[in-house]
Specification:
There is one protein chain. This protein is an alpha/beta fold. The chain is about 35% helix and about 25% strand. Strands 16, 20, 21, 22, 23, 25, 26, 27, 28 and 29 form a 10-stranded mixed sheet that branches. Strands 12, 13, 14, 15, 17, 18, 19 and 24 form an 8-stranded mixed sheet that branches. Strand 17 (about 445-455) and strand 18 form a beta hairpin. The longest helix has about 30 residues, at about 40-70. The relative contact order is 0.09.
Length: about 700
């Protein structure tokens, strides 16, 4: 890790580390995958793009939140490392240059590899005379017609720079008068333009063309200076139920729509530029109202989304060697032979591990429930959906067939608000009952409750998972799912939907742990049971982030009592393992691989006596106290065995795993045994998971 990222050392206090710096370290692990030669070339190109996309969202949301906190309460301190919002902002800004440098070096490395494979991405300064002529012709035919230029004067005031859009900014002179010009490309403009000629495929980025041929964009002017820029706007906003009640006639959807639309006019919190003169830079800083330390020189590209499509320029035969081997999620063998999933789940719990196994099983169950005469209602929580959701199609069919359909649609799922508003309207128009959660808690639970009634009375089928009802991410994220006909869980699931409808979060469920009331207390109580065993105690968990101080303190207590604590934490981890007299019995690893690790598993007890849960929640305060989340115990012995097998695989990964040391830094695990890539093992075992 670079010297600048060594600022992490200043963000550690005892066994705690700052969450924002921990997240930046996680994203650096994502970038490291772009340089990992065990990954195929085109997959490494994608990791570079993912790294920048992650960073962009982090700046929008987390840096935006800290800026808002600094304005509201500058003296307030984060509860683990005692850093103020301003200290955290400064630490983030200090880390960014090294991350930009690392991403630029990665891009140069990947460009060289692409060149060796026959793809040349050219910059304007590197064009030969013949290529310059070809590029100029391509610019005038493909780019200039899509260009929106403006010279700024009293009749052309500076228009608002849109979030993440790339602009050309120029200093102009005509007849002794100096002016500023701005130009952007239409959003339909291809990022990569293919130049004809040569044995290799020559490509030029559209914004690079715009910069190179700026003179043609502003005819009649002399271009004195030019640069490309991109701004990032603050995406943080508050949306309370009280605001909707007071200002929008109790319509929360109208409040969210207004907040989403307002993002385009939020303050600029980051400016990125190519090489730029002091005068142009000063003009932009003043116009945008930001300070110099929020302006960053970008040597490579502002974003690398085009790297996702670079494979389009290879022939089909070459592609297979540059990508991961093709894989299609499978349906467990015994389910693939059955047409009646309702009968199957009534016999035995169904377990699905995405993306190794297919979400089609759940979709087929919903489609069957939509048509089954015994089904009286289908109730579901929705956080994020695919753009053309088969989940919605099944719910609409159920409503059409006279079933009661209830959907709790979370409108505050960041950046999915508009998609959720659209689907909520569609369900409501079909006669479904739709509501938007409960008071000021986000509903992040993943639960479907199917109620059935026949001659034997009322029964339930319940689905509880760790990930969203999204067919797209089910092929990319590792998530666990249990479909059960267990009566106690079924009654808990039905009670859950009744409680949310009447604004009741304080309810004692028989089996389920539900935040904000019982989930955190339940996990802490499970840890206390292990602490009481001393050095016989075992705590194992896999989740995405660890930030909650109460949970961290309990884990420290467990370590000091002699318990063995094994944590697999993909992203933010505010606990530092291996600290003398505090966390010596705790290990922390992180896995970044082909798929996004997303499942949450909590296991308490030694081998053969484990009490196991899967959950929608991480050990984060926002999950445990400010959201409605669900954890379910794994009751079926065969399912428990499968969940623990997956947990053991990830704990023993020595290929994609990185282990955190007592300084908060991550390093590759020294492999003295056979290599274990847990995701590849799960792919091989998919039919048997």
């Amino acid at each position: 890790m670079s010297k600048e990222l060594d600022v992490m050392g200043k963000c550690i206090k005892g066994a705690y580390t700052n969450r924002e710096i921990s997240w930046l370290a996680f994203n650096k692990r994502v970038l490291d995958q772009a340089m990992d030669l065990t990954n195929p070339l085109l997959e490494r190109c994608k990791f570079l793009s993912i790294f920048i996309s992650n960073l962009d969202e982090f700046i929008q949301v987390r840096l935006g939140t800290l800026i808002n906190q600094d304005e509201k309460d500058p003296a307030a301190k984060e509860n683990k490392t005692d850093m103020t919002a301003r200290e955290q902002i400064d630490a983030i800004l200090h880390c960014l240059p090294s991350l930009y440098k690392a991403s630029n070096e990665t891009y140069r490395f990947l460009k060289n590899e692409l060149y060796d494979k026959g793809i040349s991405i050219i910059k304007g300064k590197d064009l030969s005379e013949r290529q310059l002529s070809v590029a100029k012709e391509a610019f005038h035919s493909q780019i200039l017609p899509r260009t929106n230029p403006m010279v700024l004067d009293s009749k052309h005031p500076l228009y608002r720079f849109e979030n993440f859009r790339i602009y050309l900014v120029v200093s102009l002179e005509r007849k002794g008068r100096e002016m500023t010009g701005v130009a952007s490309l239409h959003t339909t403009t291809p990022r990569l333009i293919k130049l004809s000629g040569g044995k290799k495929v020559h490509l030029m980025r559209s914004e690079e063309m715009l910069l190179n041929f700026a003179d043609s964009v502003f005819p009649g002017f002399t271009v004195k200076d030019k640069a490309l820029i991109r701004v990032t706007r603050n995406a943080d906003f508050d949306a309370s139920a009280e605001d909707a009640d007071d200002e929008y006639g109790f319509d929360f959807s109208r409040l969210i729509q207004t907040k989403v639309e307002g993002r385009t006019s939020n303050d600029v919190i980051r400016l990125e530029t190519t090489v730029i003169s002091d005068s142009l830079k000063g003009f932009l800083l003043k116009t945008l109202g930001i300070k110099k330390n929020s302006c960053f020189l970008i040597q490579g590209c502002f974003d690398y989304k085009f790297m996702f499509r670079i494979g389009d320029f290879f022939d089909y035969e070459t592609l297979s060697s540059l990508r991961y081997p093709a894989y299609k999620p499978v349906v467990p063998r015994y389910l693939s032979l059955s047409e009646d999933l309702i009968s199957e789940v009534r016999k035995k719990d169904i377990f699905l591990a995405y993306p190794y196994q297919s979400i089609d099983v759940l979709l087929k169950l919903l489609e069957q429930a939509a048509c089954d005469r015994r089904v009286t209602s289908i109730k579901i929580t929705i956080y994020r959906l695919a753009s053309r959701s088969k989940i919605i199609e099944a719910l609409l069919k159920a409503a059409e067939n006279g079933k009661e359909v209830v959907a709790i649609m979370e409108l505050c799922a960041r950046f999915d608000e508009e998609n959720n508003l659209y689907n909520a309207d569609m369900l409501r128009d079909a006669g479904c009952t739709v509501f938007y959660g409960i008071e000021n808690y986000k509903v992040h639970s993943k639960i479907i409750s199917i109620t059935m009634e026949d001659e034997d009375g009322i029964s339930y089928i319940t689905h509880i998972g760790t990930g969203n009802y999204n067919e797209s991410t089910a092929k990319q994220y590792t998530d666990l799912n249990i479909i059960t006909a267990n009566r106690e869980i079924g009654e808990d699931g039905a009670a859950f939907f009744r409680n949310l409808a009447v604004l009741n979060v304080e309810y004692d469920y028989t089996r389920l742990l539900v935040a904000p009331y019982s989930l955190k207390a339940g996990l802490l109580a499970e840890m206390d049971r292990e602490i009481a065993k001393g050095d016989k105690g075992v705590i194992r968990a896999k989740f995405n982030s660890l930030t909650d101080r109460d949970c961290i303190e309990k884990l420290i207590e467990a370590s000091r009592a002699g318990c063995q604590v094994s944590l697999v934490v993909r992203g933010i981890c505010c606990l530092v393992p291996g600290v003398k007299d505090l966390t010596e019995n705790i290990t922390v690893i992180s896995i970044v691989g082909r798929f996004l690790e997303h499942s949450r598993i909590y296991s308490f007890g030694c081998e053969g006596e484990e009490r196991v849960y899967i959950a929608s929640a991480d050990m984060m305060t926002r999950n445990l106290e400010k959201r409605v989340e669900i954890a379910t115990p794994v009751l079926d012995p065969d399912v428990k065995k499968k969940v623990l097998h997956i947990l053991s695989l990830v704990e023993n990964d020595n290929v994609k795993a990185r282990r955190m040391d007592s300084t908060g830094r991550y390093a590759k695990i020294q492999n003295l045994s056979s290599p274990i890539n847990s995701q590849e093992e799960c792919l091989r075992e998919a039919l048997n998971l």
